[in-house]
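Run log // design_07
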């Protein structure tokens, strides 16, 4: 690719990305620090009371233990599948052409 083609691609992309940085708190600057802080550009978030209420609700329903450890939340609701249903799903998945291409876990036969 020559320089002209690269510029034709780069300049419009750069021009479209500049407004995306305008709503951020930190802006690049040609100083020793490298940025300027604009706290007035920060978006209003939730209030302290809303955050505390949400945390208390999570503690009551048991999801707080998952959240504080960074674990995925368990799926709520739904009827659990029987062993026969799970085996039927497995057999159906194994019939798919891409099943043999999948390598999950350690190699078999070592």
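design_07 sequence
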């Amino acid at each position: 690719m020559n320089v002209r083609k690269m510029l034709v691609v780069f300049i419009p992309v750069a021009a479209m990305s500049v407004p995306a940085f305008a709503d951020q708190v930190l802006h690049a600057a040609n100083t020793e620090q490298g940025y300027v802080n604009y706290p007035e550009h920060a978006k209003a978030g939730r209030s302290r009371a809303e955050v505390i209420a949400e945390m208390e609700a999570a503690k009551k329903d048991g999801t707080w233990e998952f959240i504080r450890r960074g674990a995925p939340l368990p799926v709520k609701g739904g009827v659990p599948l029987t062993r026969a249903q799970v085996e039927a799903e497995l057999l159906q998945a194994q019939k798919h052409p891409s099943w043999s291409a999948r390598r999950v876990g350690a190699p078999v036969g070592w």
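Helices lie at 3-21, 48-61, 64-69, 83-94.
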